[in-house]
Amino acid sequence: MASITQDMRFRLSLLNYAQKHGVSKAAIKYKTNRQYIYRWKRRFDGSIESLRERSRRPLHHPNQHSSEEIKLILDMRKRNPHAGLVVFWVKLMQRGYSRSIPGLYRFLKKQGIMAVKPPNPKYIPKPYEQMNYPGQRLQVDVKFVPSACLKNSQVIGKHFFQYTAIDEYSRWRFVEAFEEHNTYSSAQFLDHLVKAFPAQIECIQTDNGTEFTNRFTTHREKPTLFQVHLERYGIKHKLIRPFTPRHNGKVERSHRKDNERFYATHTFYSFQDFAKQLKLYNSRSYNCFPMRPLGWKTPRQVLMNYLAVSVTHD
């Protein structure tokens, strides 16, 4: 039910007083003019709803769409229910429509015939591939050391890099500091990783960076030094889909944790200082840190427990 406004009560009181004492006295008492009182007397039918202010919106507009234009718009909308505003306007213009885009928008909005956008296709991720034993697949990536951590004048302006390998089964991680970011450093890191990992490595997964592969360079058929070393060790090289870092999610997440636990609170005064602190942090604060996916065991515990009771995998 519509509410009764203060103006409606004022007009009702005004008309009741005018009926008893006349229009002139009512105009003086209520400080208004006689024409105002006569207008509301003509409109008053005994109900207070008749004293409500009516809309002053015009019923017609000199520039409103003609019946031919309306028919054209409705017919085109039936044939193009998903066409956006600009595309729909261009199609109308090709058939003689001469209105502006804002004018067309207002008409479509008023009629409730805006474009019906089909839902975006839902992304269905692939099922997660769970590893069955250590070394089945390791994720490898490179992290750029934040420049804010470099404090000595001898290292300010230089670039340090953290090479990271993480075993998907046990979450055991191996890191190493490098001053260069290229396929030679990647090959060196692989040599040290093979010596450090206590099981045989079957597959290494990386992104498509030039430090790992020539896939997106002019020498795509030529293997990098990193790939040559992989072949020498008999390790399969798996490349993730381009621009999809979530496929290397474990190593990417470990880098995010490094920002929170290590780089946010440490500073380095030389490359040797950085390499020493990084190695100490990884052994104490990562491989010995309990993780929920591992049943609140540490990566080192999971790896050692498996190797103590497992058999050799071909």
UniProtKB/TrEMBL annotation:
Top-rank taxon, per record: Bacteria
PANTHER family: INTEGRASE PROTEIN, TRANSPOSASE RV3428C-RELATED
Pfam families the record matches: HTH_28, rve
GO terms for MF: nucleic acid binding
Domain (Integrase catalytic): residue spans on this chain: 130-307
Protein name, UniProt field: Integrase catalytic region
A GO BP annotation: DNA integration
InterPro entries: Homeodomain-like_sf, InsJ-like_HTH, Integrase_cat-core, RNaseH-like_sf, RNaseH_sf
